Amino acid sequence: MHEIHPIAEDKRRAVLDALAAIEREHDVRVLYACESGSRGWGFSSPDSDYDARFVYVHRQPWYLTVNERTGPGEPQRDVIELPIEADLDVAGWDLRKALRLVSKSNPTLLEWLRSPVVYREDAAMSAGLRRLAETFYSPVATWHHYLSMARGNFRGYLRGEQVRTKKYLYVLRPVLACRWIECGHGAPPMEFERLLERIVPHGPVREAVDALLVRKRRSAEIEAGPRIAAISDYLEAELERMQAQPPQLAPGHGRGEELDEFLRAALRQAG
Fold it and tell me: What does DSSP assign to residue 63?
């Protein structure tokens, strides 16, 4: 695995073992599993968590209960989450939930499907999910999601002369994703390096970001530090521009029947 997306072999095995245990315990089939978070984005620190995310499907009878119960008094859940152990965080969404989110062009799910680190996948199912995600992709909804993320992180972490330095990356990534969408490049990639290379290929901002990435990837933790003028000024200007003049972007499109057909096909396989 490229050093920008480091996955230790013992952690990969731990994720695969956890997925196998989930399948046995919950009687589900994992269709797709990937790395999310900083290791997927490409700016993890040596001690960053492993954030494994997956999409799974139950057997057909699970979807046919009248009261949606898994047991007496137990609501039927569409999420499976393991207790976080040390630096391993494993959680997933039921396929029906995932397809509902596909219909809304959910950026988190779009990122999962574009992760550079895939732990497991049913090739046909994951390809089908990606096709549906492309069909239902909404530039306007995705742009607003990333703008909201950028503004929230900027307000929370980057005001003042002393800032939490690593949080620059948590504002830069959604800002660059917005610019990617505005430029008509399609759904933004998960990899921060691809965003950076396309949107800020050179200049003072790029130099400052490259230096920050070197620090982030080598350090266990980057503490608060002085404001980085080149990055702060760029972010402030971009956020002000986006809020003042939102771009005219297209909504998503797609037929609900396509989602139903995909779910039924997956259930036929699951039995």
Answer: G
- At 162-221, the pLDDT tens digits run 888 889 999 999 999 999 999 999 999 999 999 999 999 999 999 999 999 998 888 877
Question: What Cα–Cα distance (Å) separates residue 108 from each residue in 111, 226, 251?
Answer: 5, 31, 17
Beta strands, E only, the chain: 28-36, 50-58, 69-71, 74-75, 79-81, 88-94, 118-121, 162-164, 224-226
Cβ atoms of 119 and 136 closer than 8 Å: no
Taking the C-alpha atoms of residue 220 and residue 160, their distance in angstroms, rounded to an integer, is 24
Q: What is the pLDDT of residues 107-124, one digit of tens each?
A: 999 999 999 999 999 999
- In angstroms, the first-to-last Cα distance of the chain is 35
* CA-angle at 182, arms to 245 and 136, nearest 5°: 115
Q: Does residue 152 sit in helix, strand or coil?
A: helix
Candidates 1.10.287, 3.40.50, 3.30.460, 3.30.750; CATH matching 9-137+253-270? 3.30.460
